[in-house]
Amino acid sequence: MERYWPHLFMFSNLLLTLLPSSSSSSSSLSIASSGSSSLLQQPPQPKCREDERSALLEFKQSFRYPIDSYYSYGLEVKLEPWKLDSWKPDGGHGNCCIWDGVECDAKSGHVIGLDLCCTGLHASINSSSSLFRLVHLRTLNLAYTNFDQSPIPFAIGNLTGLTYLNLSACELSGQIPKWILGLTNLSSLDLSLNSKLELMRPSLGDLLRSLTNLEELDLTWVNISSSLIDFPTNLSSLSSLTLRDCGLHGHVPGSLFTLPNLQVLNLDDNSLSGHMPEFHWSSRLKSLFLVENDFSGELPASIGNLTQLIELDLSFNRLQGPIPIFADGTQLTTLFLPFNQLTGCLPSSLGNLFQIQSLQLSYNHLTGQIPPQLSNLSHLVSLDLSFNMLSGLVQLDTLLELSNLMVLVLDFNNLSVITKSNITASRHSTGLAQLNLASCNLHSFPRVLLKLEKLSILDLSSNKIHGEVPMWFQDVARENLMYLNLSCNSLTGFSGNLAALRWKKLIHLDLRFNMMRGPLPLPLESIVMYHASNNRLSGVIPSLLCSRRFIQVLNLAKNNFTGVIPECFGNLTKTLSILSLHNNNLHSGIPRLPDKNCSLRMLDLNNNQLEGPLPRSLASCAALEFLNFGDNAIEDTFPSWLGAITTLMVLILRSNRFHGAMVEPTDNCEFPALQIIDLSRNNFKGRLPAKYFQCWKSMRVSNVEEGEYIGEYMDSPTALGYVPDTYDYYMTIMNKGMEMEYAKILDYFQVIDFSSNNFSGEIPMSTANLTGLRLLNFSNNILSGPIPSFLGNLMNLEALDLSKNRLSGEIPQQLTQLTFLEFFNVSGNNLSGLIPQAPTPSTPNQKERDRDASTIIEWKAVVMGYVGGFVIAAVIGHKIITENPDTRSASSLFHARWSIPKELQVTISSAA
Ligand SMILES: *[C@@H]1O[C@H](CO)[C@@H](O)[C@H](O)[C@H]1NC(C)=O
Ligand SMILES: *[C@@H]1O[C@H](CO)[C@@H](O)[C@H](O)[C@H]1NC(C)=O
Ligand SMILES: *[C@@H]1O[C@H](CO)[C@@H](O)[C@H](O)[C@H]1NC(C)=O
Ligand SMILES: *[C@@H]1O[C@H](CO)[C@@H](O)[C@H](O)[C@H]1NC(C)=O
Ligand SMILES: *[C@@H]1O[C@H](CO)[C@@H](O)[C@H](O)[C@H]1NC(C)=O
Ligand SMILES: *[C@@H]1O[C@H](CO)[C@@H](O)[C@H](O)[C@H]1NC(C)=O
Ligand SMILES: *[C@@H]1O[C@H](CO)[C@@H](O)[C@H](O)[C@H]1NC(C)=O
Ligand SMILES: *[C@@H]1O[C@H](CO)[C@@H](O)[C@H](O)[C@H]1NC(C)=O
């Protein structure tokens, strides 16, 4: 339920409006307004009544001041705790009618309105609260007051005069009391953003049947957990209904869409299903939001005739069929249909959407060409057609002539983007902030980019651009570019002999998978994430990188760097979270790290020629998850001093000069998170570490259902703010006799490889506790004794290699229980007796394979409205979809562990 919030704090420079119905001025409804405006119109102030004055003062007494100046959940609602400062016995000469937020009846002087929105004040509340003595109240707004998880007091039922009640984001909890059904004068009720409130008994149906004058109802986050079967159909007053993320499920009755006065319907983030009905032409619907549900079938053709409709967001459903034909005169400003299964062409009638500002059709199965009519849509701010099967030539210059366009995303279609060669002929398009042309059949850098001075995001990855990056390209948005992705082309380097690249605000540079030669191109000080792996870069790693004080990710793997790892990299670990230098030609020792403030989570130095011992100061990197020193010439003993790091999941020391016995802890358990350990091809000796095997708790479970990849979750900039991005950990490991490369590592993949050492003695009993293991390799040691029958406990084993030891006795029958076993090697021992009926090799676990295929990392970034030159609202989501819909919200993914430093965040404004 809270899955979007953790990211929203990153949008500090964007004004956020989270409830779409209020995000566009054109769709907001007029409601009974409360408070001070009417005071201004009535100069002779009514006189406050004594009993009500003391009730107000008593109410104020109950509050404590908030700790933060913003509301929690990162909603960026600035609190105004001083609102009650004028509430003093002598304030306004004792006339409470002129206190802030208080409205009195002109004749009687009774308090009829209280607007205390957004004070953030804390208090628990119950029915004895003096608030309920204000029985003449008609409007009451306490939104963003913190009631410390109090239930809604039953005395609310005494305020029968209420027409407007707003208790949004009040930290209320429990069942909504039945007394609320007595407030039959209510025309607006907002109980949204109270995630601990429930509406079950009474039910939503009871509420709607009682409050027959209700025009506006918002229950976002309130736990309703029911179907809409009991939804009354005769709600003639209702004009705005928001039931976002309420745990609703089942079929939606078609009549809900066609309530006579309905203007705003928001059912986002539920599990509702069904088909959308045809709409009557007289429908007054202005905003329709059904994001992240299970709606299927075709879009009704009549939707194209709804002339009042302004916003339509049906993202993340299973809608099929064509995009409807839009009639001339439609008012739509926002049309979002991404992540559905729509087919057919982009209809030329999209050209009738003269008001459209944001058009998002990504992740569908759309075919055909981009209709030329799109270039008539002069209000268009954001256009995203990515991940479809659109084809044909796209004249980029023409789209860039849309003078309001800020975001243009055409990634991954079958499009061929072309540009005019004479850029002086193209009109200056100033506002574009984001241009994504990944996989658009580009053969060279389009010169028209030089015109796009405001560009902050540029993705030209997966094209066919070859040769050197021309000198002029470094002048593209020199002052503004933050994100540049040139990966997966055939680039050989940057032309010119610059000491550093020129982009002043570049924070994310991706040059992976090109043919870059020569020294490493050096970005300026702003860089945060730099990927240059899979190239042919050579020379030394410049120590100048150490002056890049914001850098968090440095990935230079799979190049031909020589020399040493600069000594100053030790200091860089204060900011550096990921350092990947594997598959280069680096030699000498590993730099010393400072004794504290190490941020490293991932260090991969695999396959170099590094020597010497491991720096003991690594033990101070308390957040380490992944360490790979494999395939070097490191000489040391087993690093048991890393055992206190509670997050370490992967430890690879393969093929080095490690030696000695594995010293185990005497009392406390160490390496509690370890799930992959590869010590193969070293000179370890002594007994197998029985105590460790007992301690490695994370190898006891195999939680296939959770299946996520291990790696970093981080933020990448988009023109609308930062979206979560992932960095998957990579490794090679021997699996079933073959060296295998893992571009991603599933979090339930568990491996012990101790092969090719000098371990001796028997296989310890505690091995049986490692029931999550997939691969176990003890081969090529000097182990003796029998093959223990308890190995039959390791039910998840896919490969068991005990070959080339001194094991004796029989092969235990219990091993035939290992149904996933595909590889079993006990050759080169002194075994005797019968061979048990060999375990039948099973096909690789089908479920896992499906998961790999269907795991899609998705993101959506949407402009909800566009006013006065700024994007005024953005909703960002990110999720992993697996075949199990219940894991869709895989919550651990929503906690980005770090984000772009505040200093580097910029406001992206349009030129409009
Ligand atoms: C209501 O709250 C007040 C103030 O917190 C407290 O003194 C009183 O005991 C509470 N009454 C009930 C019935 O809980
Ligand atoms: C609410 O109304 C009931 C019955 O009308 C009355 O007994 C009770 O005292 C009222 N409560 C308050 C707080 O005024
Ligand atoms: C309730 O108050 C909040 C905060 O001012 C506001 O955003 C919301 O629109 C209000 N709800 C209604 C229904 O007016
Ligand atoms: C759209 O409206 C026109 C006239 O207003 C009508 O002729 C046509 O049948 C309508 N189309 C749909 C699909 O409702
Ligand atoms: C480029 O376009 C401009 C403006 O249309 C024109 O004046 C100029 O001659 C063109 N240059 C070339 C080389 O075609
Ligand atoms: C790597 O660099 C070394 C020395 O500079 C050179 O001999 C070798 O050919 C290079 N390897 C590749 C694959 O470019
Ligand atoms: C690391 O930082 C410390 C303190 O800023 C400095 O004294 C030291 O010289 C630095 N070490 C290297 C190798 O840059
Ligand atoms: C470890 O395995 C042994 C033998 O199977 C068993 O007796 C013991 O309870 C297991 N310990 C844990 C902590 O599972």
Keywords:
mainly beta, seven-stranded parallel β-sheet, 29-stranded mixed β-sheet, single chain, membrane, disordered C terminus, glycoprotein, transmembrane helix, Leucine-rich repeat, LRR (right-handed beta-alpha superhelix), repeat, disordered N terminus, binds 2-acetamido-2-deoxy-beta-D-glucopyranose, 912 residues, cell membrane
Structural overview:
- The chain is mainly beta and 912 residues long.
- The protein is built from eight helices and 61 strands.
- The strands form eleven sheets. It has a 29-stranded mixed beta sheet.
- Strand 1 (102-104) and strand 2 (111-115) form a beta hairpin.
- It is globular.
- The relative contact order is 0.07.
- Mean pLDDT is 84; it is low at 1-40 and 840-912.
- One 2-acetamido-2-deoxy-beta-D-glucopyranose binds at residues 567-568, 570-571.
- Residues 422, 424-425 line the site of one 2-acetamido-2-deoxy-beta-D-glucopyranose.
What is the gist of this entry?
The chain has 912 residues and is mostly beta strands.
